[in-house]
Amino acid sequence: MRQAARASLNALTGTRFFAAFWVVAYHFTIEFQRAPLPGKPASGVLAPPKLGLVLLRGHLAVDFFFLLSGFILAYTYATPGGKLRGSAREFWVARIARIYPVYLLGLAMALPEYLKVEPNRAIFAISGVAHLTMLHAWLPFTLDWNQPSWSLSVEAFFYLLFPFVLPLAGRLRRKGLWRLLLAGWIWFVATDAALVLIDFTGLIRGPGWNSFERYSPLASFPEFIAGMALGLLFVRYGADALPLLRRLSAPHFDGLIVVALLGFGVVLEVTNKLGVYGSGVDVLAPLSLPALTAIIFLLAFQRGLVARFLSLPLLVWLGEISYAIYILHKPIWFLLGAPLWQALDGASLATIGLIPDNLVFFAAFAALVILVSGLSFTFLERPLRRAIRQRWGQPRPLGPLETPTLPRRAISLSGDQAR
């Protein structure tokens, strides 16, 4: 039975843009640190210390995406009884249609730079097979080819398992789903603690170990499970998932979101003061997961000024192209940004501030990324997504996959509605 399209959770869509942009700023900052430019400050950070601290933690946006992915997929594909809507084949075709066209474009754009840094043809051949099959996160030595795409390899692992894991989680009732969410977080903490212990004791050594522990799909799977439990809670129970929410006004939602953001900032500041960021293991992600979970869950109800701001048409559109922003920004840098960077690297230009730490340069690069991503979304991503699903799947009118829908139970709250 075909199902009617649902209203979109625009606040979550708008949030995706800020997460993707955080990754762009993070990678730009890293590239700037590596550049031997005249007049560059010794710190290598193009921002005040506190902002620089945030910029250099941009990898946490990927953990946010893993959590959000579990939420969105569970919300979009879970029936009221907790089973998969449609067949597993339809689900897999839909996911391929969603990610593969722009993913291939990113690989093609990054190929010239990768050929420069990887002269070994045997490794190049292995990398090619691994990337085309989206297995490269399991082989960290291949990740220099459009490095951000490692997270798509991790997502592919999640997509493969989702049709089998969802019915198992879907059997749980409200308390069971909260326990699954908590178990996912504890599992994530335990995995991270085990990796820290391995690092500390030196049980496993080697140049590839740090990369494997950071990029392995197995290390990030608990985040996806936690997000999936959260999505099931939202789609099946709405505000009843946490009855306290029914007594909150829209300003209270804004206040809780601010509290979650402040908690996230405290984690960044405290870990920085303690110096734990220097570990090869990403210890920040497990500590940040509760705050990120709260932000996603609160924004899903689309109540308050924060949700309304994120639902502005421009931000929704930027959220829709955020996948292209994420996957194409590195290739765009090496094809267009880096040559311009080199052109600006001269003593005469440096004296007037035209070097890459200049915010005007970053703004120009960011605008270029948004322009190319918007064109890609309009003329490649969206048309090919539709064509692939029509050819190999049986698309159902569920609304955009990346924008989950709002059940009536979730919006039956007292006070004004966010939409």
In words, what does this structure look like?
- The protein has 419 residues and is mostly helical.
- It is built from 17 helices and no strands.
- The radius of gyration is 22 Å and the shape is globular.
- Mean pLDDT is 83; it is low at 36-46, 346-356 and 397-419.
Show the helix and strand layout.
Elements: H1 10-34, H2 49-55, H3 60-77, H4 88-117, H5 121-132, H6 150-170, H7 174-201, H8 209-215, H9 217-237, H10 250-274, H11 284-300, H12 305-310, H13 313-320, H14 322-344, H15 347-350, H16 359-392, H17 408-411
Helix pairs in contact: 1-3, 1-13, 1-14, 3-6, 3-9, 3-11, 4-6, 4-14, 4-16, 6-9, 7-9, 7-11, 9-11, 10-11, 14-16
Large-scale geometry: globular
- Total domain modules: 1
**Straight-line distance between termini:** 28 Å
Strand tally is 0
Largest sheet: none
Compose a concise summary of this entry.
The chain is mainly α and 419 residues long. It contains 17 helices and no strands. The longest helix has 34 residues.
Key words describing this protein structure:
mainly alpha; 419 residues; 17 helices; disordered C terminus; single chain
